Amino acid sequence: MHAAGLLPAGRRRALAAGLVAAALAVVSAGCSVANTTSSDAASPNTLRIVLPQEPPTLEPCDASLTSTGVVVRSNITEPLVERNPGTGDLEPKLADSWEQVTPTTWRFAIRPGVQFSNGATFDATDAAFSINRTLDASIACDVNGYVFDDSKLTVTAVDPATVEITTPIADPILPLRVSFIEMVPRTTDSTDKVRIPIGTGPYMVDYWDAGQKLALKANPNFGGTKPEYTRAIYQWRTEGSVRAAMVTNDEADLATSLGPEDGAGDLGVAYTNNETTALRMQATEPPLDDIRVREAIDHSINRTGIVKALFQGLGTPAAELVAKGIVGYNDALRPTSYDLAKASELVAQAKADGVPVGKQIRLIARTGQFPKINEVVEVIQNSLSKIGLNVKIEMMDTSGQMQYQIRPFPKAGPVLLMIQHGNQAGDTQFTVDQYMLSEGYQSSYGTTDYDDEIKAAEAKTGDARQAAMEQVLAYEPAEIRQYAYIAHMQAVLALSPSVSYQPNSATGDEMRLAEMTHATQQNNA
User: Fold this and answer.
1) pTM (2 decimals)?
2) Read out DSSP for 222-258?
3) CB atoms within 10 A of CB 358
4) Most C-beta atoms within 10 A of its C-beta, which of 72, 154, 350, 353?
5) How far apart are CA 205 and CA 440, in angstroms?
6) Burial (CB count <10 Å: 0-12, 13-18, 19+), residue 234
7) pLDDT tens digit string along 101-111?
């Protein structure tokens, strides 16, 4: 969220409040949902998965949040179209085909014969309802801010098999945006978020014991290939070593978000994900409003040392917020040098000009955000103290940290926020719209000139789009410096010898249970 990774303009306080309320509702709801059972553990057709944190919500329109999407996307609910994480191509899902019928109108042909888990038939009316519900600012859907920037679209169910979407101006990547909208039945609450979603995916919620575990079971109305595993039990443990031990001790079949030292041993599977870690600097608050201070912070981060010592080489130092393979990635950019002498000089210059460099800066990070997160922020704090800055670390849970990650931000600066962004869509526009526009959903700073450059790049297609987006990414560290990029991450999961599964770049945001099979039927990936 990137988010999970992760978003756009004009968001009201209702969004942050809604996310916090959803998280609190999960914690406070003590009762079980549906058919709670104590016989989860023994069945060979049950997947036992341990996550670093409990999903804050299962609301489908918040599935762009990593901790929600990893359970919901393509398991419980499905989109009209989806992006292949290997090729980047858009592929049919609940829509068989799509076409641009005018410069501002796209038409989607709905796949016939699809049913929701409650037995209701899915058609264009449900598709139109799902899109409109997601774009309704009153329920503050994360996907709306993340993908659509509160855009005003006209969505029409032309007939049961056809839905049309009209945009105010031509949008060359609208189908890519639509791939983020999970389809729900028209009977879904349109004024509030739901706790237990109904979808068309291969699984449905069986029960959710808040704070304990979450169970999915096979959807009897699923029309696709039936998954081999008929149940999945999710639990959550903050410590990576504990998650790894649960797999090595046969208490779980799969554990996510592990570090190289967490003890998965031969059961550890390393893979490239699409996450990039960075430090966001609240450039509207002194002393962070001085670009020399921000540049000093950038030079204070020992990216190579962090990747080598803390991540044990599972990653590469980053010079931009998108990873290789994303449209717009700039291969010519190089990470900022680690130079404490230069950083100290910049801070001294700012101090001599009256910048209050001694003012306490809050360094906020989320517990379990990525492996070795505590050690990373401690290393950064130590470097920043050496160059004359006063930094206090604050570790928060998901709901607390999200208040600082998305607009509207609390008036509690100056803040350095540790973020982790995974561009799930494959185009730089989804990164810059939320993280770099002046009023971006996860942006705390920008300029009108930079906004204009971003918008001009987004209007282009093909090679011209790639070149323009490269320039957009090069402009940020040179002229804006809202971010100190840290590393393009690799991930490790622990996998039981009894399960065959090949993780990919989308696994951290969308872990498809239907792709997991019994290892006895094929070689373990």
Assistant:
1) 0.72
2) --SPPPS--EEEEEE-S-HHHHHHHHHTTS-SEEEEE
3) 12
4) 72
5) 34
6) buried
7) 999 999 999 99
